[in-house]
Specification:
By secondary structure, the chain is an alpha+beta fold. It is 52% helix and 17% strand. Strands 1, 2, 3 and 4 form a four-stranded antiparallel β-sheet that branches.
Amino acid sequence: MKAEAGGLKERRSQRKVMVLVFLFVLASGLFWIGKAFLDRCEPLYRPHPIPRETLQRNAVVNFDPFLIPLGMKSKYTLISLSFSLELPNGEEEKTMEQRMNEIRGFIYDTLREDFIRTEGIPSVQAVKEGVGRAVRLVLPGLQVKDVYISRFLAL
């Protein structure tokens, strides 16, 4: 009787193992089938596409270097100056490029007069204001957003 009881227990444990293996295989199969089904279906929620806007940058006009004399009260003789102007739109850039020599002449004359009146080396802010003033004299109504000085040397 003990032998029958031991064999019965063995069969029950084998059935439990078989049921567990069967459930594992079934769960794995359902998982893979569900995953394949979800991959083929379109998602219920789609994020809206992000609108792309192009940012318009302001035009920047570069000027060749200037050599502008300083006044007699300064221990230096010349200022070497390079700068760029930032303009609000492209039309003004075209106008500036067409009249570049005239604009350069007005900038030179304005800065030379400013430098002769000052003692020593003028401030960078004074140079920026002088450039903006000269451009407004040549092209009334033209707005200069900013003046970027790339080189400012006293020689």
